[in-house]
């Protein structure tokens, strides 16, 4: 092995490598469909649609696989202010993705910075929600659901309206959930869920350094 490599040759080699490699920040082509609803870089401004930026690659990849298996609602429409609006069939979208595309999408959106939703909260209910989270949720969603290495969904700073609909899906069995999570969800009353959502709204702006995102009108 030769170690007598000049600085010039090292720089030249690095430059050639940089030219031959694609930009790391370049979004995969399939991401264009995602950002139409989930917002630029996966930051949603629609309270019925989750932000997908910043979640772990494992979590995001797993959600796409769950859609491929139709183990969560495919979503043909969502309700905002009691009025239905059309939504993409996520099961059909996921079915069209190759294994490599699923991985690329998950890694791309995981690399984006999460921004919490700017939303009001009830302080008293948030205090109740804090206790409920510690008792029922913290083991898998630590740090108020902001610790992405848990490989679980981001909770603090996520839109309350989306979280409310997701909790209904879990409670009704319409969405697959880990076996250990089901009894925890079954123990929650409607008031408990409401308190948890107020807690996650409160913790959103407190636990994230990024600028909050406003809801679009």
How would you characterize this protein structure?
The chain has 2 domains: about 30-110, Orthogonal Bundle (Cytochrome Bc1 Complex, Chain D, domain 2); about 125-205, Cytochrome Bc1 Complex, Chain D, domain 2. The N and C termini lie far apart (about 65 Å). The chain has helices spanning about 5-20, 30-40, 55-70, 90-95, 100-110, 125-135, 140-145, 160-170, 180-185, 190-205; strands at about 75-80, 85. The model is unreliable at about 1-25 (pLDDT under 50). It is mainly alpha-helical and about 220 residues long. It is built from 10 helices and 2 strands, in the order αααββααααααα. It is globular. A two-stranded antiparallel sheet has the order 1-2.
**Could you tell me the radius of gyration in angstroms?**
20 Å
Structural class determined from secondary elements: mainly alpha
Shape: globular
| H/I helix tally | 10
Major beta sheet, specifics? 2 strands, antiparallel
Give the helix level as a range of percent. 40-55%
CATH hierarchy, class of the largest domain: Mainly Alpha
* Uncertain stretches of 5 or more adjacent residues: 1-24
Number of strands: 2
CATH architecture of the largest domain: Orthogonal Bundle
Report the CATH superfamily of the largest domain.
Cytochrome c-like domain
Order of helices and strands: HHHEEHHHHHHH
**Approximately what portion of the residues adopt beta-strand conformation?**
under 5%
Reported by name, the CATH topology of the largest domain is Cytochrome Bc1 Complex, Chain D, domain 2
* Total number of distinct structural domains: 2
Strand order in the sheet with the most strands: 1-2
Provide mean pLDDT, rounded: 85
For the termini, the CA-CA separation is 64 Å
């Amino acid at each position: 092995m030769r170690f007598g490599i000049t600085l010039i040759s090292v720089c030249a080699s690095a430059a050639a490598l940089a030219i031959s490699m694609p930009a790391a920040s370049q979004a995969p082509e399939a991401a264009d469909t995602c950002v139409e609803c989930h917002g630029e870089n996966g930051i949603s401004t629609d309270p019925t649609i989750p932000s997908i930026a910043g979640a772990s690659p494992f979590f995001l990849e797993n959600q796409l696989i769950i859609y491929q298996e139709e183990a969560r609602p495919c979503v043909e429409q969502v309700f905002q202010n009691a009025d239905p609006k059309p939504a993409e069939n996520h099961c059909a979208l996921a079915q069209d993705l190759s294994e490599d595309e699923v991985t690329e999408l998950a890694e791309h959106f995981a690399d984006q910075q999460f921004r919490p939703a700017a939303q009001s909260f009830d302080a008293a209910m948030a205090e109740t929600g804090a206790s409920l989270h510690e008792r029922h949720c913290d083991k898998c969603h630590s740090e108020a659901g902001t610790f992405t290495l848990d490989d679980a969904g981001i909770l603090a700073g996520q839109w309350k309206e989306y979280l409310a609909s997701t909790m209904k899906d879990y409670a009704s069995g319409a969405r697959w959930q880990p076996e250990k999570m089901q009894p925890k969800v079954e123990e929650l009353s409607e008031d408990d869920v409401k308190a948890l959502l107020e807690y996650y709204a409160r913790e959103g702006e407190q636990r994230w350094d990024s600028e909050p995102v406003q809801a679009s009108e």
